[in-house]
Amino acid sequence: MSRVGRKPIPVPAKVTVKVEKNNVVTVTGPKGTLTEQFGPDMSITQDNGTLVVTRPTDLRHHKAQHGLTRALLSNMVVGVTQGFSRRMEIHGVGYRAEKRGNNLFLQVGKSHPVEFTPPAKEISFDVEKDGRAFTISGIDKCAVGELAAVIRKTRPPEPYQGKGIRYAGEYVRLKAGKTGKK
Question: What gap in Å lies between CA 5 and CA 63, rounded to an integer?
Fold first, then answer.
């Protein structure tokens, strides 16, 4: 059984946390501000440099909400202090990434370049010099992960040659192709 929800969240000196009515939490730090509304059952309190989340009962859905609330709060604190990033790789002949302004343009075997605009001003793209890899950075972990998944979905790695967009370090198991004629 996980005890994630009971672990207190340390709040660095540079970060301010404001808990308002209806469990609306605003976390402000050096990289920006995040606001999230949590379930009304959870109790969020701030004690001398830490955040503590408590649940009203030991019912199954309260236990699930407890761990989720604590994890999301922790991600907010880490996001406004360090930020999150997701590195993506492009494999395939002629496949490449390019950054124009704030937008990301991908040449991934389609008849046109695919353009991605950052959904929020806190999210940015960084393309490596050779155009074979790029990084998505931001303060909201959910937004960074979701954008990475949407970009990967435009050309997921195919199982025969491994061409496509993949997460850095992702292993693509290749299938055997057709055998030659006898």
Answer: 8
Average pLDDT across the chain, whole number = 93
* CA distance linking residue 51 with residue 134, whole number of Å: 35
My answer on whether 33 and 104 are in the same domain is: no
- Digit-coded pLDDT (tens) for 137-172: 999 999 999 999 999 999 999 999 999 999 999 999
pTM over cut 0.70: yes
Q: Check whether residue 106 and residue 136 sit in a common domain.
A: yes
Structure tokens at 84: 């999150």
Same domain for 54 and 98, yes or no, is no
